[in-house]
Design brief:
The protein is α+β, with helices and mostly antiparallel strands. The chain has helices spanning 7-36, 141-168; strands at 40-44, 47-48, 53-59, 66-70, 74-80, 87-93, 101-109, 116-123.
């Protein structure tokens, strides 16, 4: 049975209303998702020696302030890391007398009472390896002897060359 001319406009109106409602929902979806997402946090480096320094980063808050706290370093106020305040940053020094172990770092959006995220921080015993950035492993006694022999040979050659020049002059 063919549709009557009066039935067509009502179908068009219904289709237009559905399209408009869909457009409104799609336009509002990113805003809803952005505020519904939970914040994320990070500590860098994740393992540090007592007295070492760590960087703190909190994203997804939607606020311009935050706090980070731990028994490893106390409480630190976080500030915007960029103009849009999409991330909050800060730094802390681990207490020099901190014992080795895993510590909880709590991040709060907007300060006390805001959304909360926790991450772990490993405090390692002893100091960090220095010198060549920790890129050199353990040296065997044979390598140490070889290095000492080469250094002594270079020193001896230098002395021999200097003495020879002083005799000819």
């Amino acid at each position: 049975m063919p549709a009557t001319p009066l039935a067509q406009p009502s179908k068009r109106r219904l289709l237009g209303r559905v399209a408009a409602a869909t457009l409104v929902l799609v336009a509002a979806a990113p805003v809803t998702v952005a505020h519904a997402a939970s914040p994320s946090a990070g500590v860098s480096p994740t393992a540090v020696a007592p007295g070492g320094r760590v960087s703190l980063n909190l994203t997804g808050c939607g606020t311009k302030t935050g706090l980070a706290s731990s028994t490893a370093f106390g409480e630190v106020r976080l500030t915007p890391g960029n103009l849009e305040a999409t991330s909050l940053v800060g730094g802390a020094s681990v207490y020099g007398n901190a014992t080795a172990g895993v510590y909880t770092v709590s991040f709060e959006c907007g300060g006390s009472g805001g959304q909360r995220v926790t991450v772990s921080l490993q405090v390692s015993p002893g100091g960090a390896r220095g010198g060549l950035g920790g890129s050199v492993g353990t040296a065997s006694p044979g390598l140490i002897a070889l290095g000492g022999t080469l250094a002594a040979g270079a020193l001896g050659t230098g002395v021999w060359i200097l003495r020879r020049r002083s005799r000819t002059a």
